[in-house]
Amino acid sequence: MGKKIGILIENRFIEKEIFYYQSYFANAGYEVVLLTRLWGQPSLTFKGLEYQAEITAQNSFENLSDDDLKDYVAIIAPAGYVSDYLLYEEKPGDISPACRFLERVMKDKSIIKGFICHSLWIAGPIKESFNGRKVTCHNNILSHVRNAGIEYQDADVYVDDDLITARTGGHHAPFAECIINNIRK
Question: How many domains would you assign to the chain?
């Protein structure tokens, strides 16, 4: 069983959420790995939404093989604008590398998938990966979730087997606790 928890990262992340995860998951005994699209660079530094705090990522989800992915017990798409940025693809209409990565993750029942707040923006291009799934999300993206054919649940945190979702970035603590509890089951 893996001991890593991957957190997708990009600009305009919510600092208190990401910093909480880094501390909470590490204290629970897991290595926290920030995953992004590195665009051929050895690392990239991103700025947060509220305080302009910087965080550096050195790991690309594009380079993760299926064997590498086995080291991960959870992959989290955080709140803020991370998913919006990760939707970018150079050729309009193509599916972004982040979406392709999440398609792979969604197929692996051994990995807990966590989506919080606005992060389900990223589900639109890969809606087939969410067929028959139930989620909660921020009220502002409810129409996006429904348009992707995903069933909405009115809850602060919702568990659908290996898929854990939370309504807002403010629910990051119970969301993180739920993820750890489900990893340990």
Answer: 1
